[in-house]
Task: inverse folding
């Protein structure tokens, strides 16, 4: 991936693996090579643009075959609650709550993800299906499945959070990691878009092991252009097209309003991972 440290996928097994990777600065030959390459990408057509930042081109507003679309709504007095809704049925699949106060002194801060019951009444830990850990100023995320009901019963993160004095236990959480999300951006380069890397673990055979954002086109006036397959898009650094290393499209993340993101992705990627991607996109301000 251009502009981001390359990591061997087989070596990544935890949130600490991606947070320990240094971010390359804007100086040096590698950076100049990156900027030169991204100005003339070899798999996109350069489009002459105008003076609107993060504008989009080739607006189609069409749904691709084999793709599903979901909306992530952020609400609450301090935008602490996230809802994940299937666009075709309007059904809310998951919710997640972010509480800054309870996370203030934790090494790995986290959100609890709940699966919505049809009765809309959930109680107890059985509804806590996953946890989204984050660090590095909302640039690194780790999605962990709650295995508390598994045969090999693991410590739940809710118990780990309650043990403030046991640092090693917090660091060695045994919930199964299924997705690592990494955002990177070059310092002192105001117009360069941020980079997204997605590392998949314990996935099915049809699911990829690594995805990244597609490089946007650099148009005139140092503005960036990107096809997001929709007309209902608000200009934002959160907008991105997701692809594999062979430039095959796997999805789109689009900002549709101040507190709404839409994700359109291949059926190969499950709903829970898609929810984590949209939450991370909301929370990362870089």
Result:
């Amino acid at each position: 991936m251009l502009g981001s440290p390359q990591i061997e996928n087989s070596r990544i097994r935890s949130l600490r693996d991606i947070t320990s990777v240094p971010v390359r600065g804007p100086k040096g030959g590698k950076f100049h090579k990156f900027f030169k390459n991204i100005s003339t990408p070899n798999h996109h057509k350069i489009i002459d643009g105008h003076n609107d930042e993060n504008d989009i081109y080739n607006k189609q507003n069409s749904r691709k075959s084999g793709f599903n679309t979901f909306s992530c709504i952020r609400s609450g007095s301090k935008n602490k609650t996230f809802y994940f809704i299937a666009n075709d049925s309007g059904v809310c699949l998951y919710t997640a709550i972010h509480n800054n106060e309870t996370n203030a002194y934790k090494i790995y801060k986290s959100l609890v993800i709940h699966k919505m019951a049809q009765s809309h009444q959930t109680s107890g830990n059985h509804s806590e299906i996953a946890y989204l850990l984050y660090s590095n100023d909302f640039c690194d995320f780790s999605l962990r499945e709650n295995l508390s009901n598994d045969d090999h019963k693991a410590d739940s993160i809710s118990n780990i959070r309650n043990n403030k004095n046991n640092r090693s236990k917090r660091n060695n959480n045994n919930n199964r990691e299924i997705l690592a999300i990494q955002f990177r951006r070059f310092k002192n380069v105001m117009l360069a878009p941020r980079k997204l890397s997605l590392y998949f673990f314990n996935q099915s055979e049809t699911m990829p092991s690594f995805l990244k954002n597609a490089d946007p086109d650099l148009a005139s006036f140092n503005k960036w252009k990107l096809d997001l397959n929709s007309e209902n898009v608000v200009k934002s650094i959160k907008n991105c097209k997701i692809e594999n290393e062979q430039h095959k499209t796997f999805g789109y993340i689009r900002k549709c309003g101040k507190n709404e993101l839409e994700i359109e992705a291949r059926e190969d990627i499950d709903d829970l991972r898609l929810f984590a991607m949209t939450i991370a996109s909301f929370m990362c301000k870089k």
The chain has one domain: 9-283. The first strand starts at residue 55 and ends at 56. The domain at 9-283 is CATH 3.20.90.10 (Tubby Protein; Chain A). The chain is about 15% helix and 30% strand.
